[in-house]
Amino acid sequence: MDSLSNLGDGFLTVLTPMNMLWVFVGALLGTAVGVLPGLGSAMAVALLLPVTFSLDPIGAFIMFAGVLFGGLFGDSISGILMNTPGNSTAIAGTIEGHKMAQSGRAAQALAASAIASFVGGTVASLLVVFFAPSLARLATLFGPAEYLALAVFAFVAISAVVGESILRGLTSLAIGLAIALVGIDGMSGASRFTAGMPELFDGINIVVITVGLLALGEVITVAARRGTSEEAKLITSTGRLWLSRREFRLALPAWLRGTAIGVPFGIIPVGGSEVPTFLSYGTERRLASRKPGSMFGKGAIQGVAGPEAAGNATAGTAMGALLALGLPTSATAAVMLAAFRQYGLQPGPLLFERASELVWALLASFFIGMVVLLILNLPFAPLWAKLLKVPRHYLYAGITVFAMLGIFATSSKVLDLVLVLAIGLLGFAMRRYGLPVAPVLIGVILGPLAETEFRRTMAVSEGDPLALVSSPISATLYIVLALGVAGLLIQRARTARAQRAALETAA
After folding, report:
1. Which InterPro entries does the protein's record reference (predicted)?
2. Count of domains in the chain?
3. Are 273 and 265 in contact (CB under 8 A)?
4. CB 281 within 8 A of CB 300
5. In a 3-state reduction of DSSP, which class is residue 118?
6. Domain assignment present for 212
């Protein structure tokens, strides 16, 4: 009952003309940025982070809620209509969604995606409302060793899952941890890797890192590829914007199954929605293959409904894990954590006590944002696709100018412009050589926490390394992590053997 009462107070905070305007603006901008290939919700939050500094924290985070879920739907629009998903989380839904578009059912695919976003996000938000406070109370049992174990769990789990190889993922993580070391050591007061420049004593601003790595890195990558491949063809969305009774009957179970698959993945650090979306797609395909007349491969609506619901459910519960535990389980959550830090807030169990008005307003804005997005996207999704016709060189030039102005406006330091360019070149090099970006963000965000908790554990235990695994919680986390990595290695080894066998058979 306390949760419902607090949520009611949150709705009263959000349902004011100004805050409703921020929800609408966030949903609008999030969808607009998400439509653009290569950008997505994490990029939208990173780009808009500097813009919101003039807002009060509640207004800023209400806007971020709209940006987060709007970006997810925008990812799907470009995937369905152009076969170029705005982000990797939309790839699974694009497989059948683009087939539907090619067969003249683009509007139905977009409608299935919009409703899936609403169903998955709403169910996940309900679970966050009722269980995030309980998670926060559970988190009060965590000491330095447990928080260190949680950080290590996030480091290794995300690095292992998001890249094609664990080695590349760990390399990206090492880059993030190295960037996090720049600045003054909080415990000893010594400067580290600052080259004697006072501007770096506070470290590299997280906004500089996120904008450089995500926005500028993508811009340079697109510029380097220009002229090497043909532009994708945009399919016009025509016809009815609603689902027939038969299509709704096919999509409804897929929405519910996708939501059920996506919910737990938001709490575990697996690097985003790629795993649950593909798991949902595989589930729907297997179930459809048991019945005659399967449309998979020709444009099955279940192949859009399931993955889209899974992706949004994962994003919703990821916000619960961030608020209750301070644990970012995806790149978008890591950028949101950076936003909290910019306002002097630390997500975790104490956030519900120290900033309860903000937390419950943010949770209430999830529900309002879902309704706003449904109203915006069901009738107007084809209009969003017009953004795909903007010439790439104009579009990405505008993004670069916007990013640079935002960075300079936040700090008024020329050094930050140099750093954002350098980090953008780093992001380009990582994309060029297949290094995943998400582990860098996780390393930058959680690196200082892991270092501090490790040193606290060692100080309290007088240097006894067994203190790191002496508690049941930390020991369990390490065991689960070891089993998960071992299972992943076995699975990848089997896949590699199967591919080699297929090549030998073909030869």
Report:
1. DUF112_TM
2. 1
3. yes
4. no
5. helix
6. yes
